[in-house]
Structures are given as C-alpha cells and as structure tokens.
Amino acid sequence: MDALSAIKMMAGSPLNGPLSDVTQNGVLPSIPTQDLQQINSDTATQPVTATQSGGSFQNLLGNFVSEVNDKQVAAGDAIAGLMSGKNVSLHQAMISMQEASVSFQMMVEVRNKLLDSYQELMRMQI
After folding, report:
1. Which of 32, 46, 49, 74 is the most buried (most CB within 10 A)?
2. Mean pLDDT of all residues in the chain?
3. Whose CA is closest to 77, among 96, 95, 64, 63?
C-alpha cells in the first residue's frame, strides 16, 4: 500500500470529488476565481494562531495517538463481536483491522521521523 492510499484511508474520504478527476484524467480541475478570492479574503484578515490551528504540537500528537488507539479498540471490538457471533460482518472486521494496522504503521513512521529530526538537532554544533 502506498502512502497516498494510507492517508486517504486514515482520512476516511472516499475517492469521489476532485481527487477522482485527477486520477482519471491526469489533470487538476480548475478552482473558480470566486472561491479563490473568498479563501484569500478569509485568510488575509485573520492571522493563524495556535488555537485556530488545533492547539500546540503536544495536543496534535496526543490527538493523533488517541485516534490510533480508538482505531485499535474498534478493531478489537469488531473481532470480539465476530468471534462471539454478534451481528458483525467479516468484511467490516477486516476493514477495521486494516485501518488500525495502517494508522499504527503511520504513527510509528511519524515517530521515527520525529526521532531522526531530534537526533539531527542534537548533532548540530552551536
């Protein structure tokens, strides 16, 4: 599985909309100028602060880890429901297991990149 598929799976967005146009035609759809002007006017008047962008880096990582944990718990519940004979389909259990697996792999890779960045900063001479 490539990185783009993993990100799409974690985001939970199906391939319908502007991304499907890119994959089918190989051409990016144009954005109407009214939409661009609206975006520019919205961002030009208000500076981005930590509260608008989702809080601190610690909160961002904490939310990411809790989302991964929630996916792991959901996968465990789906497997337990499947094994106990509850109304859980095999397809749904496998999908939740793969979602949990991909999100965990992504979390591990993000951790590895953060550790590499930290080690690189520590090697810098002042």
Report:
1. 74
2. 75
3. 96
Contact of 89 with 81, CB cutoff 8 Å: no
User: What b/e readout covers 57-96, taking b as 16+ CB neighbours within 10 angstroms?
Assistant: eeeeeeeeeeebeebbeebeebeeebeeeeebeeeebeeb
Phi, psi of 35 (to 5 degrees): -65, -40
Within a 13 Å sphere around the CA of 93, how many CA atoms are in the beta-carbon half?
15
Q: Is the pLDDT of residue 31 over 80?
A: no
Closest CA to 68 of 95, 101, 91: 101
Exposure of 9 in the CB half-sphere (CA atoms within 13 A): 20
pLDDT (tens digit per residue) in 59-115: 988 999 999 999 999 999 999 999 998 888 899 999 999 999 999 999 999 999 999
The count of other CB atoms within 10 Å of the CB of residue 103 is 21
**pLDDT of amino acid 11:** 56
Q: What is the DSSP letter of 102?
A: H
